[in-house]
Amino acid sequence: MTLRIGDTAPDFTIDTTEGPIKFHDWAKGSWVFFFSHPADYTPVCTTEMGRTSQLAPEFEKRNVKPLGLSTDSVDAHKGWINDINETQNTVLEFPIVADKELEVAQKYDMIHPNESATATVRSVFIIDPNQKIRLIMTYPMTVGRNFNEILRVIDALQTTDREEVACPADWTPGDSVIIRPNVSDEDAKEKFPQGWKTVKPYLRLTDIKER
Ligand code: BEZ
Fold first, then answer.
1. Burial code of 190-202, b = ≥16 C-beta within 10 A, e = fewer?
2. Which of the residues 81, 119, 163, 164 has the least number of beta carbons within 10 Å of its own beta carbon?
3. For position 27, what pLDDT does the model report?
4. Does the predicted TM-score (pTM) go above 0.90?
5. How far is CA 169 from the centre of its chain?
6. What's the mean pLDDT in 36-52?
7. Phi and psi dihedrals of 129, rounded to 5?
8. Are strands 177-179 and 203-206 parallel, antiparallel or unpaired?
9. In a mutational test of the pocket of ligand 1, which residue from 142, 143, 145 has the highest number of ligand atoms less than 8 Å from its CB?
C-alpha cells in the first residue's frame, strides 16, 4: 500500500516492549515519530534507538511520542534495549513494535525489496494528533537518520499549523517565516500586524513569536 502525506495513518494492534498497543488509541492526542529499523542488535540501529531515547525530553516538550519498529520479537527487543542503554548511556522508555509477521511493515510500505526482501528500511512517519501523516522520509540501511532534522521538521510542522505560515530552506525556530502565497497583502495586514519584508511579491518574510 502506498501511503502519502495527508493520509490517515493505518491503525494496527500489535505487541510492543511496553505491552500490546492499538495504535490509534495509543497515539490519541499526540504527535507520533514512528520509525523502523532493519534488525535488532545492529550497529546503526543501536545508535538511532539510543539517540531517540536521549532526546526523550525534546520529544515530550513537543507532545511527540516516539514509536520504534523492527521485525524481531519482544524478547529480542528487550535484550537489545539492555545493550542500547549500556552503550548509548541512556534508559530507553518508549515502545518498540515487535513486527515479526511484517504486518505493520507491509501496511506502512517499510519493506523495499531491492534493498532487502525481509528487513525494513529506515522509514520515518511524522503523524499529527488527528492521525494524519504529515511527513514521510526513507533512509537506506547503511545511513543513520539525522535527529536534529527530525526535531526541526516537527518544530516546522507545529509552527506552520499554529501560525498559518510556511518555513523556508534550513529554517529553524527563531528564523523568519514565509507568508503563504494564498494570503493577500490585505489579509496579511490583519494576520501579521508586525509587518513583513517583500523580497518578491510571492516571497514575503515575517517574524513570529516563538512559542
Ligand atoms: C545497522 O543497523 O547497522 C545495519 C542494519 C542493516 C544493514 C546495515 C547496517
1. eebeeebeeeeee
2. 164
3. 98
4. yes
5. 18
6. 97
7. -65, -15
8. antiparallel
9. 142
Residue 209: the pLDDT is 86
pLDDT tens sequence across 114-131: 999 989 999 999 999 999
Residue 145 cell numbers, joined: 537518520
* Distance of CA 45 from the midpoint of ligand 1 (Å): 7
* Enzyme catalytic residues: 45
166 sits in which H/E element: strand 165-166
- Ligand 1, pocket residues at CB < 6 Å: 38-39, 42-45, 141-142
Q: Which three cell numbers stand for residue 197?
A: 519584508
The DSSP letter of residue 99 is -
Residue type, 84: I
The pLDDT of 92-109, averaged and rounded, is 97
List 137's β-bridge partners, or say none. 124
Nearest to 67 by CA among 119, 118, 17, 131: 17
Phi, psi of 163 (to 5 degrees): -110, 0
- List residues bridging with 67 in a β-sheet: 34
